[in-house]
Design brief:
It is built from 11 helices and no strands. By secondary structure, it is mostly helical. It has one domain. It starts with a helix and ends in a 6-residue tail after the last helix.
Length: 263
C-alpha cells in the first residue's frame, strides 16, 4: 500500500465512520477501485485506522465521560453483544464477507431502512433527558442491533442509530450514543486485529498505519460536527438515498468488471 492509497482510505474512514453509510463498505469499494494489491494488509489497515477516528470522538466528548460512571455502565452493556459475537465470528466475517458484492447489497438494503427510519423518527421525542439516562434494557437492544454492523456495508453508525431511536432516543441523542458506543467497540476490534496480525506487520506498515490514523483523526472531527448539523436539519433520508445510489452503481460496476470476491 502506498502513502497516497493510505491517504485516500484514511480520508474515507474519517468522513464515513460516524455517518450511517458504512465506512468499512466504502473502504472495501475504494480498495477495488484503487487496485490495492496487499489485500490482507489492507483489511488490517482499514480496521486499525479506526482508532484515529475514535480518538477524535474521545477528544470531542471527553466531558461526557467525566460526569460519572453511569455512562460507562450503559456503554459496557451495549458493547457486550457485539464483543461476544465478534470474537466468535471474527474469522468467518473477515474471510467471507469483505467483498464488493456483500457491501453493495448491504448498502442498498440499509438505505431503504434509513428512509423508513427518517419518516418514523421525524416527530419522535426522546424518552430520556440525557443519553446516559437510557435504561439497561435499551442499551442491550442497541448492542444487539449493532451486531448487524459486522456485515460490511450495513454500517455500525446506521445500526446503532436505528437501535437508539428504537430504544427511545430522538435523532440527536441516538447519534451521540452511537458516537460514544464506537469507542469501546472499535478499540476492541482494532486491538484484536492488531493482536492477530502482529507477526505479519512490519516497521513500514506501522508508519503507514500511524499516518492513516492521523489523517482519519483530523477528518473525523470535521465529519462529526457536520453530521450533527446536517442531521438536525435534514434527517436520515438523504443518507438513505445516497446508500441506494452508491450500492446500485457499484454493484453494476462489479458485475460489469467481473470483480472477484476478496478471499
Amino acid at each position: 500500500m502506498t502513502y497516497f492509497q493510505a491517504f485516500i482510505i484514511a480520508v474515507i474512514e474519517g468522513l464515513t465512520e460516524f455517518l450511517p453509510v458504512s465506512s468499512t463498505g466504502h473502504m472495501i469499494l475504494a480498495d477495488s477501485l484503487l487496485k490495492i494489491r496487499d489485500e490482507e494488509f489492507a483489511k488490517t489497515f482499514e480496521i486499525v485506522i479506526q482508532l484515529g477516528a475514535i480518538m477524535a470522538v474521545l477528544f470531542m466528548y471527553i466531558k461526557r465521560f467525566l460526569v460519572g460512571i453511569n455512562i460507562y455502565a450503559k456503554l459496557l452493556v451495549a458493547f457486550l453483544p457485539t464483543g461476544i459475537i465478534g470474537l466468535l465470528a471474527y474469522k468467518t466475517i473477515k474471510h467471507y464477507l469483505f467483498n464488493p458484492y456483500t457491501v453493495s447489497i448491504a448498502l442498498i438494503v440499509g438505505g431503504v431502512v434509513l428512509i423508513m427510519l427518517d419518516k418514523w423518527s421525524e416527530r419522535k421525542s426522546s424518552k430520556y433527558k440525557n443519553v446516559e439516562d437510557i435504561s439497561f434494557g435499551g442499551a442491550i437492544k442497541i448492542g444487539l442491533i449493532q451486531c448487524l454492523s459486522m456485515i460490511p456495508g450495513v454500517s455500525r453508525a446506521a445500526a446503532t442509530i436505528f437501535g437508539g431511536v428504537f430504544s427511545g432516543f430522538d435523532r440527536k441523542q441516538a447519534a451521540e450514543f452511537s458516537f460514544l458506543l464506537a469507542i469501546p467497540t472499535m478499540f476492541a476490534a482494532s486491538g484484536y486485529d492488531l493482536l492477530k496480525e502482529k507477526d505479519n506487520i512490519h516497521s513500514d506498515d506501522i508508519k503507514i498505519m500511524l499516518f492513516g490514523g492521523l489523517v482519519a483523526f483530523v477528518v473525523a472531527i470535521f465529519a462529526v460536527k457536520g453530521f450533527i448539523a446536517f442531521l438536525n436539519r435534514y434527517g436520515f433520508k438523504h443518507f438513505g438515498w445516497y446508500r441506494i445510489v452508491l450500492g446500485i452503481a457499484f454493484l453494476c460496476y462489479a458485475l460489469y468488471s467481473g470483480l472477484e470476491i476478496r478471499d
